[in-house]
Amino acid sequence: MIDFLAADHEAREESILGLRPPRNAVDPSRPYGFFVEEEPRAGGGTDRVATVFLTNRECPWHCLMCDLWKNTLEAPTPKGAIPAQIRFALERLPSASALKLYNAGSFFDHAAIPREDYRAIASLARGFERVVVECHPALVGDSSLRFRDLLGGPHLQVALGLETANEEILRRLNKGMTVADFRAAASFLLQNGISLRVFVLVGLPFLRREEWADATRMSIEASFRSGAEVVSLIPTRLGNGAMEELQRQGQFQPPTFEDLEMALEDFLEGEEGNARSSGLVLADLWNADALGAPSCCAVSRVNRLRKMNLIQRNLPLPPCPSGLHRLRSEA
Predict the structure, then answer these.
(1) Rounded distance, CA 225 to CA 118, Å?
(2) How high is the pLDDT of residue 299?
(3) Cα first-last separation, the chain
(4) CB 260 within 8 A of CB 283
(5) CB of 102 within 8 A of CB of 55?
(6) Pairing of strands 33-40, 46-53
(7) Pairing relation of β-strands 130-134 and 98-102?
C-alpha cells in the first residue's frame, strides 16, 4: 500500500508522480480551452467572463488531488506562446467584460508564463474591466505588482487555492503551504490593491463524508476573513491516479452532484451567507455532468445551481421526472 501520509516529502511526491496516467497531447501555440460564461458581480449585477485555459509548463507543486497537469507542457513555455494563445481565443470568443487567464498552475511562475510576455499579455487584456489569474501563494510578490502595473486600466484579481483550512489535510494534500502562508499572500494582494478569489475543495480525502460540510464551511469562513471577494467551490475529482489509489484504500470517496448542491445551499441559507457582506460563493460547474446527478434531472439541477450562482439565493430543487430521485425536503 502506498503511504501518502509519509513524513518524507520526496517519498510522497514519488508516489503521486508514479501513479499518473499519460498527459494529453497539447500545442504550445494554442490554449486547450476557452469559453464565455456569466458570473455575478460583487455588489450586484453580472459580468460576461471570457475564460482561457492556457497551455504552459506544469506547476512545480505536485498536489495530491491535482489533475490539471494533464494539459501542460513538460518543458518551460516558449516565449511568445502565451500571448499567441490569448489572441487565438479572443479572436474566436464573443465580447466580454472580464477575462480569466487560468493556466493549470501559477501565473507568476516564470517557467509557466514568461516574464517577458507580461507586457504583451497586458496589452491584449486592456479592453476588459477585470482580469483574473491564478497563482500558488508562495509565488505572490513583486511579479504580481509588475503585472498589475502593466495592466493599467483593468482591475487585477488573483485566485489562490486554499483548498481547505484544515491544516493537517492541507499537509496531506502536498500543497506546499500552510493556512498562515495563504493568509500572508492574501494580505499582500489586498494591501497592494489586488482583489482575491479563493478555491475551496468540496469532498476532502482523509475525512468522512459527514465531516465534509463542517470542513467546507470552515474554509469558506477562513477565505472571507482573509478578504476574499469570491469563493469558488470545486468538487475533488478522480482522474489523476493518486485519487483512485486513495479510493481503493478507503481514504477517499468522490463527491456527488448532491454534495456540491448541499455545499452551496448550506452557505446561502446559513449565517455565513447573511454575514458575508458583498462576498460571493459559486459552485464550480465545470465537468458537472461527471458528478453523478440522476440523468433524468441532471440538466435542470445544473441549471438550478447556475442560477443560484448568479442570484446568490437558494432555489427549490426541480422535480425528478422518473420519480427515482427523492428530494431532500421529503427525506
Answers:
(1) 31
(2) 87
(3) 39
(4) yes
(5) no
(6) antiparallel
(7) parallel
The b/e string for 233-257 (b: 16+ C-beta within 10 A; e otherwise) is bbbbbeebbbbebbeeeeebbbbbb
CATH 3.40.50.300 is held by the domain 9-254: no
Q: Give the C-alpha separation, 76 to 276, whole Å.
A: 40
The series of mean pLDDT values per 10 residues for the chain, 331 residues long, is: 65 90 96 96 91 96 94 96 98 98 94 98 97 97 98 96 97 95 98 98 97 97 97 96 95 95 93 59 88 80 95 90 52 41
Distance of CA 205 to the CA centre of its chain: 17
Instruction: For residues 68 and 299, give the distance between their C-alpha atoms in angstroms, rounded to a whole number.
Output: 25
Name the strands in the sheet holding 130-134, side by side, starting at the edge strand that comes first in the sequence: 33-40, 46-53, 98-102, 130-134, 155-163, 195-202, 230-235, 280-283
Report pLDDT for 5: 62
| pTM, to two decimals | 0.93
pLDDT of 292: 76
SS3 content of the chain, % helix, strand, coil (to 5): 40, 15, 45
Nearest to 199 by CA among 182, 180, 176: 182
Q: For residue 297, give the C-alpha cell.
A: 434531472
Please tell me the distance from the alpha carbon of residue 105 to that of residue 112, in angstroms, as a whole number. Answer: 8
Cα angle 59-9-108, degrees, rounded to a multiple of 5: 20
Number of H helices, E strands in the chain: 11, 8
Q: Domain coordinates of the chain in residue numbers?
A: 9-254
Q: Would you state the cell numbers that stand for residue 191, as one nine-digit string?
A: 494591501
